[in-house]
Write a structure and sequence with these properties.
Elements (H helix, E strand, L loop, with lengths): L20 H8 L3 E5 L2 E4 L1 H20 L3 E2 L5 E3 H6 L2 H4 L6 E3 L5 E4 L4 H9 L10 E10 L14 E11 L2 H21 L5 E4 L9 E8 L5 E5 L6 E3 H4 L13 E15 L1 H6 L2 E3 L5 E3 L1 E8 H11 L1 E2 L2 E2 L10 E5 L4 H12 L4 E4 L5 H11 L3 E5 L1 H5 L2 E6 L5 E5 L3 H5 L2
Parallel strand pairs: 3-7, 19-20, 19-21
Antiparallel strand pairs: 1-2, 4-6, 5-6, 7-8, 8-16, 9-10, 10-13, 11-12, 11-13, 13-16, 14-15, 17-18, 21-22, 22-23
Helix pairs in contact: 1-9, 2-6, 2-9
Length: about 400
């Protein structure tokens, strides 16, 4: 992509009220644009990052045996009323009426819809296990949307729902999903820990939050440095000693990047999602649900990977693999750009008529992992200058060896 044609306007200053690093850099780099409090547009650079995160998540869900589907945003009032969440869910639902005065809640989560789908189709133990997921818009009627993408009112979430014949099978899948979540976050460049959590209005007997420790995080976590026990404040309450080894607990701030819930039969009993077991008995289905907010995960990655100049994207989710900067104003840069494209290397080509300082500043802000600079000095030596975003070292590489050197 030629940067002269890219839909982007970087900014030297962060917007008023931006407190978190991710909010500042994602806005300054023109990855996102705020339409209203907690409501953002993803611009081309931001959407490319979002899609790469989405694809990592999709790959891991498919490995688990998940089947992807897509459910409506408009959920009729009667479904919410079946589980008594029309009035009790927190944050409260965004509600709308159609022209016939029928009420709908904008989906903040989809337990009711997925359970309705399954109860229409599952009759026997032979129909399970069943693992269904979607990547879809969600709406949360937050009292206070803060921190850029860390707390929003509209976002895209991956939500997975499991349906099993018993608690044992359901818990086995729950533990497999925990491992898959940790793998997803690692592939996105994050070191995340699973901590015991309160289940809130989703419900169920067990849940875990997946926490990136960060000073800017709103979640308060108690952690034992000796045995690794960890829980959020809501779950742990006022305990001061580790329940496993009686060591003292340390309080840390964190960002929640995912949440898993063992639901048991909470929804299947209420909504009569049942099956016939091997002995001919009718039983409620054992369920679990598992969520990752993609926009919050994207913001958390920036919180964890940046410096004073801008973002440092992990290679797996960077909008482009290479940022090519032309300072020479001759045809060498165009030739290299075409060669990289020919070899299917994702490249952002800064061909703009800007001074070198502006190009370097934008490159650091945008944070693509590898920068290639072509200048009169390098072309005189039939070379290019290569620099990794997370390093101060530069290296001259022969122009003919660029593609081989990148080794993508």
């Amino acid at each position: 992509m030629r940067q002269s044609q890219l839909f982007i306007k970087t900014k030297k200053q962060a917007p008023k009220g931006a407190e978190t690093i991710s909010h500042k850099y994602l806005t300054r780099g023109d990855f996102i644009d705020q339409l209203s409090a907690g409501i953002y547009s993803f611009l081309p650079l931001g959407w490319k990052v979002h899609q790469k995160i989405e694809n990592i998540i999709r790959q891991e869900m498919n490995i688990l045996g998940g089947q992807e589907l897509f459910m409506p945003t408009l959920v009729p009032q009667n479904l919410w009323q079946e589980t008594k969440r029309w009035e009790t869910i927190d944050p409260p639902l965004f509600r709308v009426k159609d022209r016939h005065k029928k009420e709908f809640g904008l989906g903040s989560t989809h337990e009711e819809v997925i359970t309705d789908l399954v109860r229409k189709r599952v009759d026997s133990y032979q129909d399970m296990p069943l693992y269904l997921y979607q990547i879809q818009n969600k709406f949360r009627n937050e009292m206070r949307a803060t921190g850029g993408l860390l707390r929003v009112r509209e976002f895209i979430m991956k939500d997975l729902y499991s349906f099993d014949v018993s608690e044992k099978e359901s818990m086995d899948f729950y533990n497999k999903t925990k491992e898959a979540y940790l793998k997803i976050f690692k592939r996105c460049g994050l070191e995340v820990v699973a901590v015991e959590a309160d289940s809130g209005t989703i419900g169920g007997s067990l849940s875990h939050e997946y926490i990136l420790f960060a000073e800017t995080g709103e979640d308060k976590i108690l952690i034992c440095s000796k045995c690794g026990y960890a829980a959020n404040i809501e779950k742990a309450g006022d305990i001061k000693e580790c329940p496993n080894c009686q060591s003292s607990l340390v309080k840390k701030n964190g960002i929640e990047v995912g949440h898993t819930f063992y639901l048991g039969t909470k929804y299947s009993k209420i909504m009569k999602a049942e099956f016939i077991d091997k002995n001919g008995k009718r039983k409620p289905i054992a369920m679990g649900c598992y969520g990752i907010g993609l926009s919050r995960l994207m913001a958390a990655i920036v919180e964890a990977s940046h410096d004073e100049k801008g973002i440092i994207w992990p290679k797996a989710i960077s909008p482009y693999q290479v940022h090519l900067l032309d300072l020479s104003k001759d045809k060498k840069a165009d030739q290299i750009y075409k060669e990289l494209q020919k070899n299917k290397i994702e490249v952002l080509y800064d061909d703009r008529d800007k001074n070198p300082g502006e190009k370097f500043a934008d490159a650091d802000l945008i944070g693509i992992p590898l920068r290639i600079v072509i200048s009169k000095k390098t072309t005189a030596e039939n070379s290019v200058e290569i620099k990794k975003r997370d390093s101060d070292k530069t290296e001259l590489i022969n122009i003919d060896r660029v593609v081989k050197f990148l080794n993508f």
